[in-house]
Predict the structure.
Amino acid sequence: MTSVIEVSDLTKRFGSMTALDSISLTIPTDSITGLLGRNGAGKTTLMHVLTGQDFPTSGDARVFGKTPAENASVLQHIAFIKESQKYPDDFKPSHVFRSAPWFFENWDADFAAQLVEDFRLPTNRRIKKLSRGQLSAVGVIVGLASRAPLTFFDEPYLGLDAVARQIFYDRLLADYAEFPRTIVLSTHLIDEVANLLEHVVVIDQGRIILDAPAEELRGRAASIVGAKADIDAFVSRRRLDVLHRDELGSTASMLVDGVDEVVRLDALNSGLQLTPVSLQQLIVRRTGGALAQATDAGAPVAAAKDGVSRRARQGASR
Ligand SMILES: Nc1ncnc2c1ncn2[C@@H]1O[C@H](COP(=O)(O)OP(=O)(O)OP(=O)(O)O)[C@@H](O)[C@H]1O
């Protein structure tokens, strides 16, 4: 497996603020990688360094084997799509798409025209007058139709409605299958993109906390609900990493990381049921858990607790 991006011991500081803290990672060639993490984790900072818009404080970043900053031979192969993209005052989408071939040698004007239809984008309206979703669509179209060997999408969906986001995912996947390239996608809508991703990098407070093939992560976390004593014994025997636990009386629900085939079989033989959890649940719990939703592993116990307290309230009011 070759790598388009190789980052080694890279630190980026803004004054006393450390945005990236000694990170190392590689991003495989011709893959769709999700760059995930909470607000302020360091995702955009990393993309800025990799697209030559910022310098690392220390450490090394290589893109196509070279340092990206001020390196035209690297930058000409990169598309960086971000919400804050600035356009000249009088520009319309039609101007953007007409000038795109100057910057992107693989630009496909027919594909861009098809995407304009798909997103129902008014191409002759000034960019300043576009709605937020329409503005996002301009970026998404540039990112897709440029077919750059390395494309970064930094939260490209902001403002796109659910239908438009699905169009983006569908077109991305279909075009990627026909024209493989390296795509790095930063998003908070993890469940929506989970099936697109082949590789996942999670940053938390400037550090890499997960860097693995998506397939490996998908089966790795699970929830177990059952008798507390049984689960405790199982988790300790299998040395599973407990990311979250919730208890009610003698019943417990745990979200565990580190599940493999052996663990699954052992659970079955021990009369415990493992239910897979989504990539989003794993990442939410790995990056702090404060955002955990009612859909998490604690839900069955939480729901039971809710039922108990509701019954208690009803009992009290009788
Ligand atoms: N130019 C800057 N000067 C000072 N601090 C900065 C600068 N740019 C980024 N930071 C800080 O670095 C940290 C990482 O920011 P970054 O924009 O990379 O996060 P992010 O993961 O992209 O977040 P979000 O998901 O909210 O977009 C944040 O704490 C941010 O406030």
In short: The first strand starts at residue 3 and ends at 14. The domain at 3-217 is CATH 3.40.50.300 (Rossmann fold). Residues 14, 17, 19, 37, 39-45 surround adenosine-5'-triphosphate (CB under 6 Å). The chain has a mean pLDDT of 87.
